[in-house]
């Protein structure tokens, strides 16, 4: 890897904002998923690489993919999102091509960056399908981009930046406002139809569980925010979800007086390693025991209805509700909602010289989040790797110009 001299925050103001640039392409980066039964185990090997998990164990956890023909919905959803972004760019008269790459399945990020470079692009801006701050939803993307630059030999030739985490951008929040409003209405109608007009209801904001160690390391922390940025004792991942949930409820008058909580799902890994709790199914059981008759399930941590939503919520959580006699409504994810797609393009325009949007909206007091992540933000507890878009990056650094 080419050594590069730089100032860690060169070109970044006190609020973590990078100066606008003349980007010539957009990369939509996502998790990826299998597209057939033969893809399932190779895909899971990619997801768990470096952990030494045998294929027999991977087969045990593959049931939700197997039950869906070995196909994850995520790739089709990313194709639809890419097309929607291209349409929004065209509607605004913005001439930026959109490339798409995945971390764990074809098209892989390294191939996508090579494709963009071969097409003549030299400065690309990445939009990921993860809205919050933690290792797996931010730094790991930045590591994969950094490693891809090294692996392809494009370090120093292709400049790669990334838009800010957008957990509280109105384009992400407003689709959930619409969903919670409609979900409450539908649930109350179900309860009325069943003769439970005044029955207790609860709103469950669901997100992917992560190891508590990763949660504590997410975002600027009390010990680690040397640049004076905000610190969150419980980690930014939890703080951002709680703040975004409150922002949604503040915009839904019909939620007044309704109890709510943040719950987790999709836990994996060794049983002895603590992960964020409560699990959504345990929470539903506790609510049912306390007399709750209906729940609105809000997949707040997710951009689209991929496998964790379709299986863990639409299958397992709804089955738990049915078994306990609890009525339920599941709110849609943003997907290709017009406001979400427009919000993603607004995030791009925050960073571009042309069509620039100087105002950076945020629906909570935590935002707008940083363009360039703080030192040690969402640290890789397994050891550092080359990253992009971070003050402690070793590749694709702010202020370094790509070769022509």
TrEMBL record:
The keyword Repeat does not apply. It catalyses: Fe-coproporphyrin III + 2 H(+) = coproporphyrin III + Fe(2+). InterPro entries: Ferrochelatase, Ferrochelatase_C, Ferrochelatase_N. Pathway: Porphyrin-containing compound metabolism; protoheme biosynthesis. It comes from the Bacteria. Keywords: Cytoplasm, Heme biosynthesis, Iron, Lyase, Metal-binding, Porphyrin biosynthesis. CDD domains: Ferrochelatase_C, Ferrochelatase_N. Its EC number is 4.99.1.9. Pfam families: Ferrochelatase. Its main location: cytoplasm. It is an enzyme of class 4 (lyase). Fe(2+) binds at residues 208, 308. Gene3D superfamilies: 3.40.50.1400. PANTHER family: FERROCHELATASE, FERROCHELATASE, MITOCHONDRIAL. Involved in coproporphyrin-dependent heme b biosynthesis. Catalyzes the insertion of ferrous iron into coproporphyrin III to form Fe-coproporphyrin III. HAMAP family: Ferrochelatase. Belongs to the ferrochelatase family. This is Coproporphyrin III ferrochelatase. It comes from Arthrobacter flavus. The gene is cpfC.
């Amino acid at each position: 890897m080419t050594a590069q001299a730089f100032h860690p925050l060169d070109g970044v103001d006190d609020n973590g904002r990078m100066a606008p640039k003349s980007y010539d392409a957009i990369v939509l980066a996502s998790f990826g998923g299998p597209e057939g039964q033969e893809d399932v185990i190779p895909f899971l090997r990619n997801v768990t690489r470096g952990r030494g998990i045998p294929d027999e164990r991977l087969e045990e956890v593959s049931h939700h993919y197997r039950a869906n023909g070995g196909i994850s919905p995520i790739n089709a959803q990313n194709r639809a999102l890419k097309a929607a972004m291209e349409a929004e760019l065209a509607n605004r008269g913005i001439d930026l091509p959109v490339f798409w790459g995945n971390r764990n399945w074809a098209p892989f990020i390294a191939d996508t960056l090579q494709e963009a470079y071969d097409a003549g692009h030299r400065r690309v801006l990445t939009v990921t399908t993860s809205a919050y701050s933690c290792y797996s939803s931010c730094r790991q993307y930045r590591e994969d981009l950094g490693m891809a630059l090294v692996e392809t030999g494009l370090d120093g030739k292709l400049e790669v930046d990334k838009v800010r985490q957008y957990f509280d951008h109105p384009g992400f929040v407003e689709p959930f406002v619409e969903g919670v409003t409609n979900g409450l209405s539908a649930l109350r109608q179900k309860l009325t139809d069943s003769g439970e007009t005044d029955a207790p209801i609860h709103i469950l904001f669901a997100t992917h569980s992560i190891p508590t160690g990763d949660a504590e390391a997410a975002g600027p922390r009390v010990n680690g925010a040397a640049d004076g940025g905000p610190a969150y004792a419980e980690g930014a991942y939890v703080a951002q979800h709680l703040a975004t949930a409150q922002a949604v409820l503040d915009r839904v008058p019909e939620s007044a007086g309704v109890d709510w909580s943040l719950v987790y799902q999709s836990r994996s890994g060794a049983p002895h390693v603590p992960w964020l709790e409560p699990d959504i199914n345990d929470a539903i059981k506790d609510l049912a025991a306390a007399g709750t008759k209906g729940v609105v399930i809000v997949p707040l941590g997710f951009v689209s209805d991929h496998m964790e939503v379709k299986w863990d919520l639409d299958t397992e959580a709804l089955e738990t509700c049915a078994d306990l006699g609890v009525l339920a409504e599941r709110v849609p994810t943003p997907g290709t909602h017009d406001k979400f797609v427009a919000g993603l393009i607004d995030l791009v325009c925050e960073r571009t010289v042309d069509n620039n949007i100087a105002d950076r909206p945020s629906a909570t007091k935590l935002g707008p989040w940083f363009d360039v992540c703080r030192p040690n933000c969402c640290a890789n507890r397994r050891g550092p790797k080359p990253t992009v878009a971070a003050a402690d990056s070793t590749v694709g650094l702010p202020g370094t110009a790509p070769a022509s």
